[in-house]
Design a protein that fits this description.
Elements lengths: L7 H19 L4 E2 L1 H8 L3 H9 L5 E2 L3 E3 H11 L6 E6 L3 H7 L9 E8 L8 E3 L2 E5 L3 H8 L3 E4 L3 H14 L3 E4 L12 E4 L2 H9 L4
Parallel strand pairs: 4-5, 4-8, 5-7, 8-9, 9-10
Antiparallel strand pairs: 1-3, 2-3, 6-7
Helix pairs in contact: 1-4, 2-3, 6-7
């Protein structure tokens, strides 16, 4: 295994490989190859082999990869061989959809709590067993429970103050759906998801 720091772009592709392996399992497959994965994902087989080589040797030349073995190793590398509790801020349409999304559980994540500032949302059950809490109590609750991951699903003007509260309380990883780039110190990881940005990327090719 390479002892050099793994490039972030490589780490970013690992969940894509893991997702492909999960689909292969649903097809009752046991073995795959870097060529097959590459064909499915639009990534060269050489790139896949190079990415995986950062973490060890998982396949055999002429045989390929044992799907369950590679899946287990990727889960361990990404630390999703356990369940992560995630706190969600924002109980609007997007927050409601995220709280009800069934795809998190099978991939290592559990929405543990939801917060909002709206009086007509606080105290309501957004999903079975999950009641919206007052965002005023966010910092205290994060410190009390020790959550390390959060999803921000609030309007753009509220996102940075919410992020500041989360970071000050000890959260280390943020998934931001607000259409704004968050300012964070080193040591905090942020992923931004803005559907409009991706649509604008696509329209470039339609003009």
């Amino acid at each position: 295994m390479d002892n050099k720091p793994v490039p972030d772009i490589v780490v970013g592709r690992l969940p894509i490989y893991l997702r492909a392996l999960t689909f292969l399992k649903t097809e009752h497959r046991e073995i795959t190859s870097s060529q097959e994965l590459g064909d499915r994902l639009g990534i060269s087989s050489a790139q896949i082999r190079k990415d995986l080589s950062h973490f060890g040797e998982f396949g055999k030349q002429g045989t390929g990869y044992d799907i369950r073995h590679l899946e287990a190793n990727l889960k361990q590398i990404l630390h999703v061989d356990r369940m992560w509790d995630v706190v969600l801020i924002g109980a609007g349409d997007l927050g409601h959809a995220l709280a009800n999304y069934r795809g998190f559980a099978g991939r290592g994540f559990h929405i543990a709590a939801v917060f909002d500032k709206s009086g007509d949302k606080i105290g309501r059950e957004i999903v079975e067993g999950l009641v919206v809490e007052d965002v005023v109590t966010l910092s205290e609750r994060v410190k009390q429970v020790g959550w390390k991951m959060a999803i921000i699903a609030v309007p753009a003007e509220e996102a940075q103050p919410v992020a500041n509260t989360l970071m000050e309380a000890g959260v280390k990883a943020l998934l931001n759906y607000a259409p704004i780039s968050l300012m964070v110190p080193s040591g905090i990881r942020v992923e931004h998801i803005d559907p409009a940005v991706h649509l604008q990327h696509l329209t470039y090719y339609l003009g």
